[in-house]
Amino acid sequence: MSYTVGQVSAFAGVTVRTLHHYDRTGLLSPGDRSRTGYRRYDDADLARLQQILFYRELGFALDEIAEILADPQANALDHLRTRQRRLAEEIARLQRLAEVAERAVEVQQTGVSLTPEERFEVFGEIAFDLSYATEAQLKWSHSDGHREAMARAAAHTKEDWRRLMGEAADWRAELLAAFDDGEPADGERAMDIAEAHRLHVSRWFTPCPPDMHRRIADDFAADPRAFALVVPPSQQRPGLAGHLHEAVHANASRRAGGRPRPLPQPLPLSNDTPHMRKTHEDPDSHGRLAR
């Protein structure tokens, strides 16, 4: 018994155009023709088509399928093992993407509740990089502190953010002035500016002991997206992130009352460093803007 192209298209779930393409490329050329020259598919053709559709479902390219079908015993097993490995890799990649997407949704849902106009008014040039925020979510997803931090940040009112960003702008002006004046990173002025930043983090986001502040500074030196949260690119200077990094470490050693520790090489912020939690602990008792 033989079948027309239209019949095969209907019960195999492929288009007539696809069957014509398989014929032109030699992948599936029907073994018979009608008296008027139309293609006729027999049982052997249908069995071959079934194999082609199986390998297509697994994602094989047509030239790979042709190679397999040319000598199934020699080629099929190796090709299937290779495809199995690639599918496993793709599944892992898609799983990571799904996780990133889920965290991105969380970031958006727990983000700052302001209109675009209000965001520009309050934050100005400071931009929150979604990829950086999402990576932070993935790193700290196990941390109750980070989840609480995101919730507290989301709870800030527009006026809270206005005050916070105003303090940050004043602090940034002091940082830039000291850097432009050539102040050493381990000098009193630079360390006082670093301490002001630590107090700012403590007041508005999360208690920030010196060791945590070190890790935050390590991230400033390692990741431009992190440093852009405190100094927008238009105001940055070459070496400024490293200068702040050194000043924070020097200030942490000063507060500990010991010798300065050797500065580590900049590394990505560790998983236990949630620096987005609001608190009123550790107030600035000296009247300095805690930025």
UniProtKB/TrEMBL annotation:
The keyword DNA repair does not apply. It holds the Pfam family TipAS. Residues 279-291 have a biased composition (Basic and acidic residues). The keyword DNA damage does not apply. GO terms for molecular function: DNA binding; DNA-binding transcription factor activity. Residues 252-291 are annotated as: Disordered. Keywords: Activator, Coiled coil, DNA-binding, Transcription, Transcription regulation. SMART domains: HTH_MERR. Residues 77-104 form a coiled coil. This is HTH-type transcriptional activator TipA. The gene is tipA3.
